[in-house]
Amino acid sequence: MREPHFVSFVLGPHLLGIDILLVREIIRNVDFTPVARAPLAVRGLLNLRGQIITVLDLAPSLGLPLREMGPDSRCLILKSPEEVALLVAAGLVDEEPVGEAVGLLVDGISDVIRPGAEGVGSPPANANGIDADHLRGVVQLEERLLLVLSLKRLLEEGLGLRSLVSRN
User: Fold this and answer.
1) Which structural domain range is residue 150 located in?
2) Which parts of 44-161 fold into alpha helices (H)?
């Protein structure tokens, strides 16, 4: 397995990260259409060059209020389930794909983090108020912790699929 690199971003008071190979692109102008009766975390749909992307706000799953759009707000467009499956098959990532194209609404983008020799540590039971079930690990930076997200569970919860998954 390769040494992971993480795209880091801000969501409320947290510095969070996901594997850079899971991100297709980051868009600045997030113009989505709200969807009636969608789960709380589904903020809307985005037409990205003809592909419909579900825009999620992970904040409710993390115990934070819904995001307010600001000048630094961005949307991380994740790779398609097919692209992620190819990365998994090649041994480049170990995240399972979710069956829908999604974008993650965030407060701002930070840096690409390379954990280096310290690597990624095990997540504590409760990292700054975030349940360990939502984390893959933590990276100790000079001034704060990078919380590395476990996307599959968060995305399923945000899309309202968690109850379906837990029944199987």
Assistant:
1) 6-167
2) 81-89, 151-158
**In whole angstroms, what is the distance from residue 78 CA to residue 121 CA?**
24
Whose CA is closest to 104, among 133, 80, 136, 74? 74
- Reference 148, options 94, 81, 102; nearest CA is 94
Residue 1 lies in a domain: no
**CATH code where residue 155 lies:** 2.40.50.180
Checking if the pLDDT of 10 tops 90, the result is yes
Match 């930076």 to its residue by tokens.
141
- 3-state secondary structure (DSSP) of residue 142: coil
pTM for the model: 0.84
The closest alpha carbon to 100, from 59, 149, 42, 49, belongs to 42
- Per the structure, the count of domains in the chain is 1
